[in-house]
Input
Amino acid sequence: MPDARDSILTKLRKTRDVHPLTPPASDFAPIEAKRWADEERLPRIRRLMEAVHTEFIDATEADWPAVLREFLAQEGVGSLVYAPETEAGKQLVEGWGVASPASNSPSPPRGEGRGEGDASHDSPEGPAAHPPHPNPLPGGERGRTPAPTLIPYDRPLEDLKPQLFESIEAGLTATRGAIAETGSLILWPTAEEPRTLSLVPHIHIALLRTDALYDTFLQAMRDQGWAQAMPTNVLLVSGPSKTADIEQTLAYGVHGPKRLIVLVVHP
Amino acid sequence: MDHQPPKPTRVYYFGTCLVDLFFPDAGMAGIELLQSQGLTVVFPQGQSCCGQPAYNSGYRADALKVARAQLDLFPGGDPIVVPSGSCAGMMKKHWPDLFRGEPDEAKAVQVAGRVWELTQFLVHVLDVRLTDKGEPVRVTWHASCHAQREMGVVDEPKDLLRQLANVELVELKREKECCGFGGTFAVRHPEISAAMVGDKVADIEGTGAARVVSGDCGCLLNIGGALEAGAKAARGQHIAQFLKERIHGR
Amino acid sequence: MDANAPDFAAASRAALADPQLRGNFRRAMDGLMGKRAAQFADAGEWHGVRALAAAVRLRALAKLPELLEKLEENCTRNGITVHWAATTDDANAIALDILHRVDAKLVVKGKSMVTEEMHLNAVLESDGIEVLESDLGEYIVQLDGTMPSHIIMPAIHLNTKQIAHLFKRKLKDAESREDAAYLTDLARRVLRAKFQAADVGMSGVNAAVAETGTLCLIENEGNGRMCTTVPPVHIAFMGLEKVVEKLEDVPPVISLLPRSATGQPITTYVNMISGPRKDGEKDGPREVHLVILDNGRSGIYADPELRDTLRCIRCGACMNHCPVYTKVGGHAYEAPYPGPIGKILVPQIEGLEKRGAMPHACTMCNACVEICPVKIPIVEIMGRLRVEAVKPGGAVKDGGAKASRAERMVWSGWAAMNASPTAYRIATAAMSRLGNAAPSSLPMLKEWTNVRTKPRFAGRTLHDLARAKGIPDA
Output
């Protein structure tokens, strides 16, 4: 409503000019003063995020896809959606142990996925629903567990919605670092790495490299120059979805992911 | 306190209207505590009320009229001691607003700047040392909202109580929560006020204290009246009177 | 008196008579106050960040018209369509226009207090559009057919047992289980189907950044992300005061909001949206709309004292710390914003005829002022509104609506007595001698003595005692 716009702005300007307001200086020093030593940041992030039920796995540049694959297999996770054109996506596929993703067609619906932190393997639709992986990892017992099906997020949401909401169990994203003060991951969705990867599947797996750990939100946005070019969406994620709306009782997994797994990739 | 004035020899005493009508003994006890420190205490007989009831009810012109009637009673630069955090807060914090743009604004600001709450003055200016001559007793402290949040009086009264060897001070649960007096609030919203003082009484009972000591007579009317009406063991008392009794051994 | 005016006194009586409700609030607010205090254990940090957050909000207000223009310009450049609404009716009409154009049948909503102000759900429902609140607390309240009782924890008035009964009654396949995890999971299943199917998602805005054209939303559940990411259209609603100048201004606000509100260091999600889906992007809404609502705010802005009301970042901490709110709960206020901020904001939006009693539902204890993360002088504004309520004309809608000749006379009499030493001496002497004979059945004494003994006049005033003891007069 253009009339509303002009009349609102005119009124604001007129009354403000009658009674101008001189704000005190914005002194960012109290936030800038929040510093942690290099070796303190990751433990702090981990402690804060674990306090809100985030899980952590350690891996290296060389083995993270295999570590992830093994973890998901152990957890009985049947499907993982990933961003095929990203660096992480390429590494994932490369290190997964197969030449190409098992299939472009998502696994059949598996209901609601895993329950509240329940990692048991006795689901009727559990690992048995997937044939053993053709290229098992070396190392005896581990090789017998079926690896999840990799599903590339290679089309618009509209074409992936039913699978994403109804069957895909886990999603993998990279991060653009993490924040020590609050224990928060920085997610930077792109054309290649869609927003819903970290939102809709019941499990969100986030790769965290240890070379981009910031003290504060402010420091992260300054160092990375966010204000110069904000993407469509930026997120801080500090744990799995949670609520305390029922009598202040904390419950995890209300709308977003029920589990958040940070895969720390050490150099 | 950021500025500790040199110990004066003379102070003014502003008794407040509630003390005047309902707790004059507490008012006298405050005067005697100051005298016991070697001070000359002046009590201007022309004083009445700080103006807060009308100020908080939306009748600022009436509040101004009453406040103005107090202004000339305190000539010079001697401190003005008030045995109430709420009335002290009205004078110190709100008089400058109330008189803004008035011809006597400067005078009001000067007077306001000299106002002290009693326990604040005893601790920060006089640095009193109290010797307890009373029997062992357990007490709790009720912090009045305006003493805490307008005058910044938080630890001073408790520091004074802790100087008393035979007094066991038990901290009140939810010490900072309002008792529900709130001036005209208690009669505008009697049921809510009753619920608030009900919670306060329960918390006082929880301490097992024989006395609930406070520095504000509005709270004491409210809490003391509710303790009495509920036939509770604890009794309310103004801190000036409590301190005076302890150092005199009764 | 407006016959339709909400009756806070009556509503609060009903609330006080409900021991379950009182217990729910007492427990919840005690817990929230404790958790908040733990977050601000470092007093220096609290004072520093608080001063910064207040400065950020004040700077935004100082440049409000320019920042709104800049926000519009940058949002537009980012592909966000900006709409301006003078009134809630205008805002509802804008929403309906968009919904009709995209032929929306199902709307999912994230938390938005502005849409509560607009009564948007009722408007959409009467237009035949299904609208679902997706914040769990809001969803519960919507199922229950009531309104939020707290701006951050909408269903805080209900306990698990009550919510279990509600779900059993309203949701098919619901088991009667008083278990928060089960109930949460139940809501998850119902709502995920709705997120997937929704035509339009709606949300509020915690802060809109003029510099970058970015809408910031914070939340724990992921429903806000769902509403702003999955449906093809996203409509965000904000009060015009929600703008901040720079992206750097967001961290101080985000630092204080969740810590003040619920005692958590940060919310699970901080969601910064700077546009609809771009070419090549695979998800995100194809349209993003921002509705900027005035609804009386420009009037509040016009007054240099009342303007501070607009600093608010809607953390709800003032409610948690308000001894009155804690006793009566949020519904007693019958307003979109209850508690201290409601008591100053709602009368200014809706006028003193309808809401003139609200600023009196306060003991002026200043607990809210002490913890407000942006230092709003809530109690000073409360006092100012009490003045406006009895002063015809003035800066606030329906100024003078509560003026009463009788009350006017009482205060004139009070002033006459207290402004003259002679009158004061005569009056206090009379009260001291005769006051105790006043029957407890007198109007004000009757209310007082319901739970208290009658105040006892001492017989001799301090003036008398001081004179008798020879205390110098000058």
